[in-house]
Write a structure and sequence with these properties.
Elements lengths: L23 H51 L1 H4 L2 H40 L2 H30 L4 H72 L4 H13 L6
């Protein structure tokens, strides 16, 4: 959400009437709420982008692990060792199951975060328009007040009296319009800020629960894989590495 021109101080303008149409305190309070709204708008945009990047990262991780198992299955060493090949096949099956769980999580991210936040972000432009209309209404109100003051100071000729009465009517209309828009913003912006949390929180709770489910499934899958494949002790791995280094073709 772009910061609107309303954030400037209307009391410093050359067109300002002698009699203030709105108190500085009221103006500052509304400006403060609008700045909060701006910050929330930026946060919402970042959340939507970050959620999309998360989905992409999940896909990248799943794809990278699957490529490892596929490369191993297609290499000559693996194909010439039936037991080793069988182990990699089991790993590949686990990777594919994990990828399915990842796709389900990504679907949850899309439904519970990306799409709801996108809808929320679509509301900000309409609020921005309302703020700009309120600013235009304030400008018109200030001009009408200044015009009335001008004719009040002039000589009371017939023509000036007519213009004075016209200015009074214009001021009443401008004041009503501004008051309506100003009150609506003063009431709705704080409500929107509060409701935004209520809107997002259930989505994030659903996302966290899905993440817990995915991690629990990952632990189960890879625990089963580890038990099936069997694991070598560290000293056995180190011994094999030592034997490899002892080969004449690997001696420095």
């Amino acid at each position: 959400m772009k910061e609107t021109s309303f954030s400037s101080n209307p009391f410093n303008r050359h067109t300002a009437p002698k009699k203030s149409v709105i108190s500085r305190t009221e103006e500052r309070e509304l400006v403060k709420e609008i700045k909060k709204l701006d910050q929330q708008g930026e946060t919402s945009k970042k959340l939507q982008k970050d959620a999309k990047r998360w989905v992409e990262a999940n896909n990248a991780v799943a794809g990278s692990e699957h490529k490892i198992t596929q490369d191993l299955l297609s290499c000559q060493l693996c194909q010439s060792e039936p037991e080793f090949y069988k182990q990699i096949e089991e790993w590949n099956k686990t990777v594919e199951k994990q990828a399915q769980s990842t796709r389900e999580l990504n679907g949850t991210v899309q439904k519970t975060v990306v799409e709801p936040v996108k809808k929320l972000n679509g509301v900000y432009p309409s609020i921005d328009i309302a703020i700009k209309k309120r600013e235009q209404s304030l400008q018109e109100y200030m001009k009408s007040q200044a015009k009335l003051e001008k004719y009040q100071e002039r000589e009371r000729t017939g023509q000036n009296i007519v213009k004075l009465e016209t200015s009074k009517k214009s001021l009443i209309s401008a004041k009503e319009d501004f008051t309506s828009q100003n009150n609506a913003l003063k009431e709705d912006i704080p409500k929107f800020i509060d409701m935004r949390t209520e809107y997002i929180q259930p989505s994030l709770e659903s996302l966290i629960k899905s993440q817990v489910a995915l991690n629990a499934e990952s632990v189960r899958l890879y625990t089963e894989l580890s038990e099936h494949m069997g694991s070598k002790e560290d000293n056995s791995i180190q011994q094999t590495l030592t034997e490899i280094k002892a080969l004449s073709i690997t001696v420095d």
